[in-house]
Structure formats: structure tokens, C-alpha cells
Design brief:
By secondary structure, this protein is of the alpha/beta class. It is built from 13 helices and 14 strands. It folds into two domains: about 270 residues, 3-Layer(aba) Sandwich (Rossmann fold), CATH 3.40.50.10680; about 30 residues, no CATH class. The strands form four sheets. It has a seven-stranded parallel sheet, with helices on both faces. A hairpin with a 3-residue loop joins β6 and β7. Bound molecules: guanosine-5'-diphosphate. Guanosine-5'-diphosphate binds next to α1.
């Protein structure tokens, strides 16, 4: 039986599977390495959207409708700030603001993002280890056809992913170091699960932190496709493939992760792609990968763990 798991995750899609894995594993057996290349400063506050999405999901605090932000959120503070002339393109809920206030206060007093994250996780009653991919600043820059290079949140939220992309740059990645104790968590894991997050802007920055790819390469790695029937469930992943001249499909995602993978989980609607994926030496497994409910998350996570078990056992 699989017990120790490391999951790589971005925000919405990553958080859903991470939550399912969390519910399937014993306390302390899941570590989640979360993308921080989307982090930015807004209204003077340090915002880590993917870390918060993952933590809110595991703590049962997430807004089930949006997949991000908190349940029962109100918007008094941002409405007031906007009325006073502040920027209105990024919504910050009142409860969520408390997280950013406290994170910013602690960063300013010199604490590390990884320490702050693990303290927050403990305060929220989360027994998984949540790691920001790095304590060093990494910033996703999106190259576009008509608007040059845009900071990620400007592309993603302000411009609604409308500009056509030509590539990505992760500023600061060359010198970024993995967060403390993360490499040890990978070392102790039986399997690494790449969650169904955006491969371009959520998973790639994690893999490109010097040291992480090398560390996971010795492990069995299983990825879950974020592309179902040629479409992203949410967000710009499919649009990005098309704009970069590739067909958005599960097999394209498998090909992108390539030799890193021992196994690949794709949706049943894409089951006809398993042969193509097998030709590149990756064992695949087709099931229902759309996670609409909490039960879906747990069922998919449990199937992913069984699949990992079969891979490790050579069955
Ligand atoms: P972001 O940082 O909030 O954009 O979050 P992620 O990168 O973690 O997630 C975005 C990806 O999650 C998109 O490519 C979606 O297609 C994928 N996704 C969201 N929900 C689901 C789901 O229920 N099942 C699968 N397979 N993918 C999903």
C-alpha cells in the first residue's frame, strides 16, 4: 500500500486532487509542493494564491463554487478601497485579507514563507506538510504577441488570459532554492503525484527550481491530466497549448512530462489515447477525472494511489 506521497500542485485543479489525497492518507503522510511563481504584491500585501487555494481546500475553508477564496466570504474591505480609488482588478475577500495581512507582517519581520505556511497550516488544523516550492522570489512572466511580457496576474486576472501567448519566463528561478525540508520529503516519498494543474505555469516552475527535478527523478512519478476532451476544466491551459502550436490533449500533456513519468491518468473520454501514450513508454490509466464533488476528489485520489501501487509492484 502507498502511504508516503508528495504531490506537486498549482491552485484550483491541484488543490482538488491534493484534498482527495489528503483524505485518503494517514495524517502526516502527504506533502504538497505548491507553485509560488504566481505570487505577487497587491495593496502592499504579499499574496500567494496557489498556497492559499491548497490550504483552504485541505482545511475545508474553500469556496466550493469558485475553487479559490474562502467560503462565506464578504467583500467590504476591497469595496471600500476601490471606492477610495484603489485598483479593482483583483478581488480580495475580507477573510482572505486576514491571511495576507498576517503573511505580510511575518515576512516583514524576517520569517520564511515556508515557516509561515507551515504555521498557517497547523493553525487551520491541516496535518499534511505544505511547502511553497521556494522561499526565494520567482515570478512568472508571460510573453504575448501584442503586449510584450506581462506579469502573470496581469495576464491571468487583469487581462482575463485574453492576450495570445508565445512563451513563459520564470524570473529568478536560476538562483531559487527548494524550500527547507522539501528535498527530504521527496526522498521519503514512495511516489510523486503531479496534480491536474496547468503544466505551463503551475507545474513547470516547480520542476525548474534547481534540485527539484533531479530529486524527483529517482521516484515513481504519476501525473493526472488537466486536459479533458481537448479542453481545460478551468483556466487557460488548452488555449496556451493552441497558441504555442500544440494540440491540447491528454497525450500532449503526457508527452510534455515525457520521461519523467512512470504513469499517466487521463479521463475516460480520452481513453483512445492510451495506446499513443504507451508507445512513449508511459503506462496510462483512464477513469473519470472530473472532480465536481468532494466524493469525486477522494475517489480519484484513491484510484490514483491504487494505480501507483500497481506501477510500483510492476503489475
Ligand atoms: P490555477 O493556478 O488556479 O490556475 O490552478 P491549477 O494550475 O492547479 O489548475 C488549473 C488546471 O486545473 C486547469 O488546466 C484545469 O483544466 C485543471 N482542472 C481543474 N479542475 C479539474 C478537475 O476536476 N479535473 C481535472 N482533471 N482537471 C481539473
Amino acid at each position: 500500500m502507498i502511504s508516503k506521497v508528495v504531490a506537486l500542485a498549482g491552485g484550483v485543479g491541484g488543490a482538488k486532487l491534493a484534498d482527495g489525497l489528503y483524505r485518503c492518507l494517514a495524517p502526516g503522510d502527504l506533502s504538497v509542493i505548491v507553485n509560488t511563481a504566481d505570487d505577487f504584491v497587491h495593496y502592499g500585501l504579499n499574496i500567494s494564491p496557489d498556497l492559499d487555494t491548497v490550504c483552504y481546500a485541505l482545511a475545508g475553508l474553500a469556496n466550493p463554487e469558485t475553487g479559490w477564496g474562502r467560503e462565506g466570504e464578504t467583500w467590504q474591505a476591497i469595496h471600500n478601497a476601490v471606492q477610495l480609488g484603489g485598483p479593482d482588478w483583483f478581488n480580495l475577500g475580507d477573510r482572505d485579507l486576514g491571511t495576507h495581512l498576517e503573511r505580510t507582517r511575518r515576512l516583514r519581520q524576517g520569517d520564511l514563507l515556508s515557516e509561515i505556511t507551515s504555521d498557517f497550516a497547523r493553525a487551520w488544523g491541516i496535518s499534511a506538510n505544505i511547502f511553497p516550492m521556494s522561499n526565494d522570489l520567482v515570478a512568472t512572466m508571460v510573453s504575448t504577441v501584442d503586449d510584450g511580457e506581462l506579469p502573470f496576474q496581469e495576464y491571468f486576472v487583469k487581462r482575463g488570459c485574453e492576450p495570445r501567448v508565445t512563451g513563459f519566463r520564470f524570473a529568478g528561478i536560476e538562483t531559487a532554492r527548494p524550500a527547507p525540508f522539501m528535498l527530504e520529503a521527496i526522498e521519503g516519498a514512495q511516489v510523486v503525484v503531479i496534480c491536474p494543474s496547468n503544466p505551463w505555469v503551475s507545474i513547470r516552475p516547480i520542476l525548474d527550481i534547481p534540485g527539484i527535478r533531479q530529486q524527483i527523478q529517482g521516484k515513481h512519478i504519476v501525473a493526472v491530466s488537466p486536459i479533458i476532451g481537448g479542453k481545460a476544466v478551468k483556466g487557460p491551459a488548452a488555449k496556451m497549448y493552441t497558441e504555442l502550436g500544440m494540440t491540447p490533449s491528454a497525450s500532449t500533456v503526457a508527452g510534455q512530462y515525457g520521461s519523467l513519468l512512470s504513469g499517466f491518468v487521463l479521463d475516460r473520454v480520452d481513453g483512445d489515447q492510451t495506446d499513443k501514450i504507451r508507445q512513449s513508454g508511459i503506462i496510462s490509466f483512464a477513469t473519470n477525472t472530473l472532480m465536481s464533488t468532494a466524493e469525486d476528489r477522494e475517489r480519484l485520489a484513491s484510484e490514483v494511489l491504487d494505480f501507483c501501487d500497481r506501477i510500483i509492484g510492476g503489475k
